[in-house]
Design a protein that fits this description.
Order of helices and strands of chain A: HHH
CATH superfamily of chain A: F1F0 ATP synthase subunit C
Number of helices of chain B: 6
Number of strands of chain A: 0
Number of domains of chain A: 1
Shape of chain A: elongated
Oligomer: heterodimer
Strand content of chain B: 5-15%
Largest sheet of chain A: none
Number of strands of chain B: 4
Number of domains of chain B: 1
Distance between the termini of chain B: 51 Å
Radius of gyration of chain A: 17 Å
Radius of gyration of chain B: 21 Å
CATH class of chain A: Mainly Alpha
Order of helices and strands of chain B: EEHHHEEHHH
CATH architecture of chain A: Up-down Bundle
Chain lengths: 75, 254
């Protein structure tokens, strides 16, 4: 296996495994937000910005994996 | 495959031996525009606001109230507001300006081939890193100002017991990790947006990239918000007197 092929495989594994955690986390956040809004629809204006912040923070581990994969590929 | 994606910004030209990259070029003009706009706006402030002034006042008032709900103290907010809001506004502006159609087509001929004149500013790691460093330095200064220099050192090097010592070292690592986590979040999102757009445009032009472009606009607004809110949360955590360590995500309890 030459190093070019190893690079592509490594990048694929990095982002593939790294995407699992944030996916579960974001799904969980969205589900809980829906639940909360369903229980108290008037509070949706206050809940949704918090949801976006929480999602963006949860997403960050996935973004780290993505950055690693991009560095493997392009740098 | 002819995707041209590079992690580092392209260099346009040199002034002396100082390279001018396209992100530097672009951010210089954005800064100039914002500063001149702010000065003109300041000179034309009226007691009875016009349409634009009302809109700006509403925006700033809303931001101020939101930040007060995080810091929980109007005095603190007044001190930290200029920094945080400038960060937010600058990042937002840089991100949104990447969506001007056609700008990616403007290229400049250099020694290394044709180079795009504009590049998303936040997709340059050095820019994001610099902003994060400013934020983290402010956090350290605020901590020193609240607990004093001795308390600051004592926070990291605690000799009361093996567990305390270990926790102090972990705190030290945590401070350094803040730089990486804050900056990688913003950089990764913006750079990923650029790469995603390029790849989609390469695979199937015109229709397929549209939803991704919409997603990009969403990220372009949410990420500056998250970046500035997190910086604010860290700063306001640092300004609280010796409190038990908490995870930063106890965000605004309104």
């Amino acid at each position: 296996m030459d190093s070019e092929a190893a690079k592509y495989i490594g990048a694929g594994i990095a982002i593939g495994l790294g995407a699992i955690g944030p996916a579960l986390g974001e799904g969980n956040i969205a589900a809980r937000t829906m639940e909360a809004i369903g229980r108290n629809p008037e509070a949706s204006g206050k809940i949704s910005p918090l949801m976006f912040v929480a999602m963006a923070i949860t997403e960050s581990t996935g973004i780290y994996a993505l950055v690693v994969a991009l560095i493997i590929l392009f740098a | 495959m002819e995707l041209s994606i590079s992690l580092s910004p392209e260099i346009l030209f040199y002034i002396g031996s100082w390279p001018i990259s396209n992100t530097f070029f672009w951010s210089f003009f954005i800064t100039l525009f914002l500063v001149v706009g702010a000065i003109i706006f300041r000179l034309r402030l009226k007691l009875i606001p016009g349409k634009f002034q009302s809109a700006m006042e509403m925006l700033i008032d809303g931001a101020f109230d939101f930040m007060t709900s995080i810091t929980g103290d109007e005095k603190k907010t007044k001190k930290v507001f200029p920094l945080i809001f400038t960060m937010f506004f600058f990042v937002l502006f840089c991100n949104l300006l990447t969506f001007i159609p056609g700008q990616a087509a403007v290229t400049l001929k250099t020694a290394g081939g044709a180079v795009p004149l504009f590049r998303a500013v936040m997709a340059d790691y050095s820019m994001v890193f610099l902003m994060t460093i400013v934020g983290v330095l402010v956090m350290q200064i605020v901590t020193i100002a609240t607990v004093g220099p001795l308390g600051y050192i004592g926070k990291f090097f605690n000799f009361k017991g093996p567990l305390n010592f270990f926790l102090g070292i972990m705190d030290l690592i945590g401070e350094i990790a803040k730089v990486i986590s804050l900056s990688f979040r913003l950089f990764g999102n913006m750079f990923a947006g650029e790469v995603l757009g390029a790849v989609m445009l390469f695979l199937l032009p015109f229709i397929v990239p549209l939803p991704f472009s919409f997603l990009g606009i969403l990220t372009a607004v949410v990420q500056p918000f998250v970046f500035s809110v997190l910086t604010l949360v860290f700063i306001s955590m640092a300004s609280e007197n010796p409190a038990p360590e908490e995870e930063p995500l106890a965000v605004p309890a309104k």
